[in-house]
């Protein structure tokens, strides 16, 4: 809700309030929802909505441009404020959606006639405020834009910064440090949001926590700067690394949308971000819809398969109760390893037994849906595409390109390349009549170059091209379930989730490792988007062994799948998997759409998902380490109704007891029956995991 009183504007969500003073371009307040007091009485603390060089504010600025006369300074003064009835779309870029009146603020530099527009939309039901900005060149000469951040938030006080960092197979590990005095930067320069630093960050102190994210999948930058004047400035936007955009006369540059949220603690912040992603980012048929249990052949076969092998896995998948069979990498061109064929999106008839269409029909005849893997933005030098169009590849003239995973990238900034990708990928989906598509992206950008594209514009033009392509393809197949993937979860960000309703969280399928990866991901993203698969034992990434029960329990934190050769398992294991899938389907709504909380204890980690009415919950507790003589592990649950009694049972076991919600949440309790200490004595280093089912007792 937006209320305007002269120059004072108040944006409310259910639990937060943002107060802006338009004429002085200031934030007066952002945090827990205010009562009905006079907002004009809030004293100014000099917290600005934007900043540019040329003033005595020497903190990192949100806007930098060079005018035709070579000057960098801008004196942007208030011009007007209005409330738009609908949230405007951002041309060429994905953004959040939903009923949201939007505040538009305009500031003009009188000398140059350059205008800065800021947009604020408050989403009541998730307590998130979406912010974006636009620069319009009203001058008589082109200007060069060097930086336009999407969001600036000035705060007072001392903060710590939480980021989610890692690499391939270890995405989104949580790190917290004192912001200190000076500048802290979280960013990506590799052309995609990256495995290294996710754009979601938190800025925390004893009064609460602010969360920030960017609806963008390219180079991003979040800075937190504690100035010597006691202000802490947060900037979120496109990375200005190598960024230099020529803005012709009369044209606009649109920065991607950023989002911010305040909450009293990290658990509450996650719930708000989850609601926001579920309601205002994920869209189309799969929004709020239960996701199918899939079986993917990647870790089961890698590139080594034929029709018979695939159909035998599919048959076992059907028998176990899975709903979707996904054919991963290796079905096209002459691809038998990762050195060839990317770009040749035609069927390898030998490996698929006559092509995708016939394979898909056979899978469907078994009663399963059919899904297909593609990696549309890539090209192998050993491909017909490269032989015919070497200039489609992203590479610098006269230089040997950097090969990563033996492949090059396509120059998606080029419209001809975009059209090629749209045409060929649409054809793959249409000819296989796919129900699901896994869109992979397995390398970072290196030789950024496209003929005629200025170097300073390349990264962003790539993103605009990529979004054009993915938008066209997903619109053409509105019923298909698209899952994003980038060598695991390297491009899991809000921009991706506007097109892909779910995302492959990590190539690391080891249960122990997954606990940290999924927990880190869950700070900013809901379990409804996290692909989580049970894979073979010993695990292919770590060599570690974990019980089938532990692997299943951990995968239940996300969207359940199996990624192993089911035909190689014993009868007992297949029966166990069938019972896991049947349990998951029965409880899928709760697991996928309940309120998700992380559970953390001494040597334990897991999660609990609570139904919206708090009458039911499922908790998974994993004991990460155990030594003989250790006291019984204790747990403390979250999100339950403190006034209710719950019947608590163990999924694999006969222990049942009725316990109050308050006790379960307020006491560290060593629940009897939690762990099998006989098994623990024979501990082989794997995690010990239990799933608890909680049902509210009717009094
Ligand atoms: C990386 C993905 O994350 C894997 O799941 C798999 O699809 C491979 N690529 C295939 O090359």
TrEMBL record:
Keyword Hydrolase belongs to the record: yes
UniProt entry tagged with the keyword RNA-binding: no
Biological processes per GO annotation: carbohydrate catabolic process
Molecular function terms, GO-annotated: alpha-galactosidase activity
Domain Glycosyl hydrolase family 36 C-terminal, first and last residues per copy: 608-679
InterPro entries, A to Z: Aldolase_TIM, Alpga-gal_N_sf, Alpha-glycosidase_related, GH, Glyco_hydro_36, Glyco_hydro_36_C, Glyco_hydro_36_N, Glyco_hydro_b
Reactions that this protein is recorded to catalyse: Hydrolysis of terminal, non-reducing alpha-D-galactose residues in alpha-D-galactosides, including galactose oligosaccharides, galactomannans and galactolipids
Class of this enzyme: hydrolase
Keywords noted in UniProt: Glycosidase, Hydrolase
Positions of substrate binding: 168, 328-329, 405, 438-442, 485, 507
EC number(s) from the headed UniProt entry: 3.2.1.22
Domain of life of the native organism: Bacteria
Pfam families listed in its UniProt record: Glyco_hydro_36C (PF16874), Glyco_hydro_36N (PF16875), Melibiase (PF02065)
Active site residues of this protein: 440, 507
Residue ranges of every copy of the Glycosyl hydrolase family 36 N-terminal domain listed in the record: 27-247
Family note: Belongs to the glycosyl hydrolase.
PANTHER family, per database record: ALPHA-GALACTOSIDASE C-RELATED (PTHR43053:SF3), GLYCOSIDASE FAMILY 31 (PTHR43053)
Name of the protein in question: Alpha-galactosidase
Organism: Candidatus Borkfalkia faecavium
């Amino acid at each position: 809700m937006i209320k305007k009183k002269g120059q004072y504007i108040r944006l409310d969500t259910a639990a937060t309030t943002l107060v802006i003073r338009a004429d002085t371009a200031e934030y007066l307040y952002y945090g827990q929802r205010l009562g009905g007091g006079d907002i004009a009485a809030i004293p100014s603390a000099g917290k600005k909505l934007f900043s540019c060089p040329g003033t005595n504010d020497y903190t990192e600025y949100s806007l930098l441009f060079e005018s035709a006369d070579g000057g960098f300074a801008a004196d942007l003064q208030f011009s007007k404020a209005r409330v738009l009835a609908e949230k405007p779309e951002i041309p060429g870029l994905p953004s959040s959606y939903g009923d949201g009146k939007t505040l538009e603020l305009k500031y003009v530099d009188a000398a140059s006639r350059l205008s800065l527009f800021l947009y604020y939309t408050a989403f009541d039901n998730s307590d998130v405020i979406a912010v974006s900005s636009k620069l319009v060149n009203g001058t008589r000469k082109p200007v060069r834009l060097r930086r336009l951040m999407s969001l600036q938030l000035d705060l007072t006080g001392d903060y710590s910064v939480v980021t989610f960092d890692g690499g391939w197979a270890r995405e989104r590990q949580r790190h917290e440090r004192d912001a200190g005095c000076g500048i802290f930067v979280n960013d990506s320069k590799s052309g995609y949001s990256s495995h290294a630093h996710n754009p979601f960050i938190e800025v925390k102190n004893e009064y609460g926590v602010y969360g920030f994210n960017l609806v963008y999948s390219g180079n991003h930058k979040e800075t937190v700067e504690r100035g010597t004047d006691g202000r802490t400035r947060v900037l979120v936007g496109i990375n200005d690394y190598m960024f230099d955009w020529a803005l012709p006369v009369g044209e606009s540059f649109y920065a991607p949308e950023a989002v911010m949220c305040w909450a009293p603690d990290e658990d509450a912040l996650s719930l708000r971000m989850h609601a926001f992603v579920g309601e205002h980012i994920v869209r189309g048929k799969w929004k709020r819809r239960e996701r199918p249990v899939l079986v993917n052949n990647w870790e089961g076969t890698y590139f080594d398969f034929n029709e018979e092998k695939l159909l035998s896995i599919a048959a076992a998948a059907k028998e176990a109760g899975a709903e979707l069979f996904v054919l991963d990498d290796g079905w096209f061109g002459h691809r038998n390893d990762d050195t060839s064929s990317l770009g040749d999106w035609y069927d390898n008839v030998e490996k698929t037994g006559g092509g995708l269409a016939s394979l898909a029909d056979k899978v469907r005849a078994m009663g399963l849906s059919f899904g297909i893997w593609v990696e549309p933005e890539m090209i192998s030098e050993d491909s017909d595409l490269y032989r015919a169009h070497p200039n489609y590849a992203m590479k610098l003239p006269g230089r040997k390109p950097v090969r990563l995973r033996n492949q090059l990238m396509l120059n998606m900034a080029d419209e001809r390349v975009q059209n090629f990708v749209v045409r060929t990928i649409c054809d793959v989906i249409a000819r296989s009549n796919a129900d699901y598509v896994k869109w992979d992206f397995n390398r970072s950008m290196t030789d950024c170059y496209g003929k005629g594209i200025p170097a300073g514009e390349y990264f962003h033009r790539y993103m605009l091209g990529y979004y054009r392509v993915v938008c066209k393809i997903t619109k053409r197949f509105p019923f298909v379930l698209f899952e994003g993937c980038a060598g695991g979860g390297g491009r899991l960000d809000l921009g991706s989730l506007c097109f892909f309703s779910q995302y492959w969280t990590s190539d690391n399928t080891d249960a122990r490792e997954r606990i940290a990866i999924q927990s880190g991901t869950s700070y900013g993203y809901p379990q409804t988007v996290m692909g989580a698969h049970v894979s073979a034992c010993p695990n292919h990434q770590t060599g570690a062994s974990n019980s089938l029960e532990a692997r299943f329990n951990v995968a239940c934190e996300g969207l359940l799948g199996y990624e192993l050769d089911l035909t190689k398992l014993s009868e007992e294991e297949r029966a166990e998997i069938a019972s896991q899938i049947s349990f998951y389907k029965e409880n899928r709504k709760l697991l996928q759409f309940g309120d998700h909380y992380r559970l953390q204890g001494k040597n334990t980690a897991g999660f609990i998902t609570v139904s919206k009415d708090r009458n039911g919950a499922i908790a998974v507790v994993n004991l990460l380490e155990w030594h003989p003589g250790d006291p019984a592990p204790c747990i403390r649950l979250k999100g339950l109704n403190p006034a209710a009694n719950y019947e608590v049972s163990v999924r694999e076991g006969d222990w049942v007891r009725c316990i109050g919600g308050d006790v379960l949440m307020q006491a560290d309790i060593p629940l009897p029956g939690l762990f099998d200490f006989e098994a623990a004595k024979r501990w082989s280093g794997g995690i010990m995991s239990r799933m608890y089912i909680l049902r509210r007792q009717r009094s």
